[in-house]
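User: Quick sanity check before I run a bigger batch. Here is a single chain. Can you write out its predicted 3D structure?
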Amino acid sequence: MASSGNTRPPPPESRLPLFLEVTGDDHPKACTGRRLLQWRRARRIPRGRPLYPAPVVLDPYAREPLSAEDRTAAERGGLLAVDCSWNRLAARGRLPDSPRSPRAGRHRRLPILVAANPHHYGRVAELNTVEALSAALYLLGRPLQASELLGGFRGGPGFLEINRERLAAYSAAPGPDDVLALERGLFGPPPSAPSSDARRGPHSAASRPGGPSRSGGQSRRAAEVTRSAGRRPPG
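Assistant: Done. Predicted structure follows.
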């Protein structure tokens, strides 16, 4: 039997590159994406500029949820988030158009999670930019990078805390169908998703996060999540 002194430590966690498009339609003081850029935790990409290799694009209206199947693509091309206003996003029903060409890369929505930021605390799926990127990192096997990214943001540590069980379950799911099954078990089926298209989840255009189609059951379960975590909204 090998002695404990010969036990090799686990390999260090490799970091995924993070990219941001900033639309400028969010309030600068509330924009977590701008602070990520200022703190050099993400790289700003001019709108319409293609990236090669293509990144995984976080898109709340994408049909398929992010899952372990996307890990290789993210390791090759990184993660791209579009920093924009939730109100304008809901009015458009899609991400803002790219001025020169469609955003290359696989578009993925996040599985259902609960926001912990002071503007949307306790709301289902209404994450800010840093929460979205942190969740994506966690789901793709980078929990340390996910935690570090939230440092310095109000409500940041609470995001991983109140979503701990959901993030652990989603990250262990091997593919998007398994993630969808977990979502249904945790939050119930999306109220207006057509049965013929099982992968149009509650972040899709048919059922917008933060829009009128969010079910009362989902909101009640989100409230139960925050109460069970023993936390209050950050002041």
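The radius of gyration is 18 Å.

User: Great, the batch can go ahead then.
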